[in-house]
Amino acid sequence: MVLFALLVGMIGFVLWYVVDRRAKNRAALPGNPAERGVSGTNTGPAAAGSGAPVAGKTVPPATPPKKD
Known about the structure:
The chain has helices spanning 2-28, 33-36, 45-48, and strands spanning 53-54, 57-58. The N and C termini lie far apart (83 Å). It is built from three helices and two strands.
């Protein structure tokens, strides 16, 4: 009976912790992007056309097609 009470208490604590962390993370989303470390511009390697992998695919460099 004691082990069952400990199990129920542990499950309750884990559920409370997960719900609390999700609420804190969602509350931080609409805030200042600088607080989250997100810039407002897309300056990553994919934006520069460097051929960096994006979501498992390789983006080719942005070069105009050659005409012969």
